[in-house]
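SEQUENCE-TO-STRUCTURE ENTRY
===========================

Subject: a protein chain together with a token-level encoding of how that chain folds.

Sequence line: the amino acid chain in single-letter code, read from start to end.

Question of interest: how does this chain fold, as expressed in backbone structure tokens?
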Amino acid sequence: MTTMLEVTGLDASYGPVQVLRGVDLHVDEAEVVVLLGANGAGKTTTIRAICQMVDTKGSVTLGGAELVGTRPEKMAGLGIAHVPQGRGTFPELTVDENLQVGAFVRKDRAHVRGDIERSYMLFPRLGERRTQLAGSLSGGEQQMLAVARALMSRPRLLLLDEPSLGLAPLIIQGLFARFNELNREEGVTMLIVEQNANLALDIADRAYVLEAGRIVLSGSAAELRSNDAVRRAYLGF
């Protein structure tokens, strides 16, 4: 299987405060990988380090090309789409305008409209609200919009940081069903940071456990689900 993302010996810091220490992980093409860990373990920092949004040392490659030292705003053009915590939509723009912004790096402008309509098929609620300002959407609808906008760049790799945060259980289930559909039917490669470990492991191929800035455990989703320590710490049984 072809490796899409490879992280080797990754250190990350916010000024003098080091958060990640020698993190190694990889995500293969068309794979869903979940990063688990307690609050403060460094999960969000890992996503931010991959996107070069914090000070990093080590190696991060996408398809074999080194990313360390690349400016964060270049990531979309290289094929990485990042859905951060808090959704990050443009509240003063309509749903349709937000999706158009998501395609700003693309050269095939003739196909953008078709992909916007595809987003409305994937998330019908967005289609119903295409002319509505993003800031007036519900939390679940804004998360759908953030994901749909990220997909408008036709990314090679989709990074999702706590996509279920603050959402109702029914909305979360629907959102993860869409993630599973995108991966299984369209081969979208994903790295997901998620507190809802049960739901994340249901759609994942593999998972890593991060503790105090280090990877302490990794394996298939089934292996981690059956691990007693993981079950007690993250799965609630």
About this structure: The mean pLDDT is 93. The beta strands are 3-14, 17-28, 32-36, 55-62, 65-66, 80-83, 157-161, 189-193, 206-211, 214-220. The CA atoms of residues 30 and 186 lie 8 Å apart. The longest strand covers residues 3-14.
